[in-house]
Amino acid sequence: MTSTDEPGLGSIVTTLRPTGWLRQRLRTRPDPRALPWLVLLGGLLTTTLFCNSERHYKQLEHERIERTLATDIIEGIEARLGTNIAMLDATVGLFNASERVTRDEFTRFAQSLISHGENLKGIQGVSFAAVVPGNDVLAFEAEIRRDGQPDFRIRPAGPRALTTAIVYLQPDDWRNQRAIGFDMYSETVRRSAMQMAASTGEPALTGPVRLVQEINVLPQAGTLLYVPIYENPNDRFLSPQDRLRRLRGWAYSPLRMGDLINNALSDVKNPDKIGTGVLIYDGNQPRRNRLLFDNLGLDGSARLTHPTWLKVMVAKRTWLIGIQIDHRRVSPGGWSRELLLMALLGLSLSVLLALITLRLVTNHLRLQAALAGEQAATSERALASVVFDNSPVGIVVTDPDGIIIRVNPAFTRISGYALQECRGHKSNLLRSGRHDQEFYCEMWEAIIRNGHWSGEIWNRHRTGQIRRHDLTITAVLDNKEQIVNFVGLLRDVTERYSQQEEMRHLATHDQLTGLANRTLLMEALNRSLALAARQGRRVGLLFLDLDGFKPVNDHFGHGTGACLLQAVANRLLSSIRKSDTLCRQGGDEFVLLVPEVEDLAQLLSLAEKLLLSLQEPYPDLPSGIKIGASIGVACWPEHAEDADGLLDAADNAMYQAKHRGGGAIAVAGSAS
Q1: CA-based end-to-end distance of the chain
Q2: Which three-class secondary structure state does DSSP give residue 359?
Q3: Which of 221, 468, 531, 664 is most buried, judging by how many CB atoms fall within 10 Å of its CB?
Q4: 280 in any annotated domain
């Protein structure tokens, strides 16, 4: 066409209309001699397009694998650090529950934390670094030496505006003994993280440091994780400076990064981690002097060619994590031996097809297409069956009425029910009885409304044991948007739930007696006051201080004193209701919360009952031990407006009873 105007559809059709000669040629059969060349050309073109598409897919798959693996590794590291932070929070709870924690108390507490499973993998210890009161180093050293560390000395020596010292560090091995007495605040990197934690009240992590515990044989990069401990932590903080003024010290853990990250990697179940390089830097840039971890020695080498980088915030620090999977598994360029074999197979098939006659080629292609489709369907069914049978997640499939059709072996391991036992039964055969009917109604309403539901649920194992499961239920729809099946995915999270409950118990209970500590008491007291305000009830508080406990401790020793405190706790528990909360305030002080009180006379009667109970002999302890108590009684709303005020009122009343010579009961606000 010579015109510069864009042709219309009609002119194009006219132009492309076959001439008489071309119509004659189209009516004739194609030349058989040209057909093999056309088939060969088509085969080569198809092979080229397929290989290029497959190579592009492999490139994307390579990137996806690295990102997925990076996410799994980050979750593993965060889980490890989360466990460590939980341990440090429990340590803070120990110090919040007591005005002074002795070396023996800290040792027992720390050993109870680290004696469970794999808690200390990669973690050098659970520690306490104290702020030296008034910078009086000599007095502080003398106090620590009296507490059982005769060689204690703060180092480095010299005057400083603020002096700190590592006082307790468990486990008490040769590495950790090297750190006792070290003033971490004297070193810039450690001081920065300590100040961050102290001024914010949140966990803070240092940059890379050389740990005091480290030796010259195979040294590892280290970091330290700090959680602050304050005086009167339940009082409101007015400013960051107020936090620094009330700072008692830090619960902290020294972390050997090589051990910590390697153990975090061991928890990652992703098979793609085999042969994978993992690099971790402190900060936003991959600088060698900020390197925390490099499992394959890739930093600065030519082998570091295609890492995937992700930034993550960890305890107030920015980490840069690089992931590079093995080239031999999936090449960054998308090439693989399988792809080369596919190209060779496509070329061979094209040549073969070019040598066959048109009719044979046509029949062969039809047959091949049919076989390929069937093979793909068979492979998909086989793959689905393999995934179903080998999945570590329990899978149960039901019909629209909830009748079980099929379960996988993992479901049998989790529930105890084999396919033959549960097929034909409703899925509620696992009901534990811990959830009411409303819970199940809401769950199924969510499934019908949203097409899925996820959450944790208590189920009953075939043996009768109650287990906690992570459950996901998804509705399967047909092309008419009708439900044809329900698929449930089940994971047993009982152990994880038990560990969380155990950590919470350690953080909210006294280690010696097992009673609630001050933190748990204040939670229960605030909750009881809020409920009492709505229902118009009274709340009572009894503050008990043992009479004659110090002579027992001095004469018979701390071991007998501890046994006496345990016996007192058991005797008090046997004298109160299950709805009451008994707390060991610290030392030989106990607090009893009575959430439902008729009048003050009821509290006085209870106080007399407790006095008589404590005065009875203790046959399991050495003869001659006699104990009593002074009890202060306070009642809300008569004696205070809030929880702190009620506790102070009961405490003041206890001191009034103490001034009367002990063994007495005093009511808040009464004359001494």
Answers
A1: 118
A2: helix
A3: 221
A4: no
Residue whose structure tokens are 């509705």: 475
- Please give the positions annotated as active site: 588
Residues 448 and 485 in one domain: yes
Give the CB-side neighbour count of residue 288, counting CA atoms within 13 A: 5
Contacts of 335 (CB under 8 A, 6+ apart): 55, 58
Answer whether the bond into residue 171 is a cis peptide, omega within 30°: yes
**CB-based contacts of 80: which residues, under 8 Å, 6+ apart?**
121, 122, 260, 263, 264, 267
Do residue 589 and residue 490 come from a single domain?
no
Question: Mean pLDDT per segment of 10 residues, for the chain of length 672 residues?
Answer: 43 48 57 78 85 77 81 85 88 90 89 66 78 93 91 91 92 83 92 93 91 70 92 91 93 88 83 85 90 88 85 87 76 68 81 79 71 72 75 86 86 82 78 80 85 84 82 87 86 74 75 85 90 89 90 84 88 88 88 90 90 86 84 91 91 90 83 50
Enumerate the H helices of 161-299 as residue ranges: 174-177, 188-200, 240-245, 257-266
**One-letter amino acid for residue 566 of the chain:** Q
Distance CA 566, CA 192 (A): 42
- How much is the pTM? 0.45
Same domain, 513 and 452: no
Cα distance between residue 356 and residue 300, in whole Å? 57
Assess whether 556 and 623 both reside in one domain. yes
pLDDT at res. 153: 94
Indicate whether 466 and 536 sit together in one domain: no
Are 608 and 561 members of one domain? yes
User: Where does residue 69 rank: exposed (0-12), middle (13-18), buried (19+ CB within 10 A)?
Assistant: buried
Q: What share of the chain is helix, strand, coil (3-state, %, to 5)?
A: 45, 20, 30
Quote the tokens at residue 18: 């076959």
CATH classification of the domain holding 621: 3.30.70.270
Tell which residue, 249, 110, 255, has the closest CA to residue 184: 249
DSSP 330: S
What pLDDT does residue 7 have? 45
* SS3 assignment, position 663: coil
Question: Which CATH number does the domain housing residue 466 bear?
Answer: 3.30.450.20
Domain range for 180 is 79-263
By CB neighbour count within 10 A (0-12 exposed, 13-18 middle, 19+ buried), where does 12 fall?
exposed
* Amino acid letter, 328: R
Q: Is the residue at 533 inside a domain?
A: yes
Whether residue 629 sits in one domain with residue 523: yes
Same domain, 454 and 406: yes
| Phi, psi (degrees; rounded to nearest 5) at 595 | -75, -20
Q: E strands, 400-451, where? A: 404-407
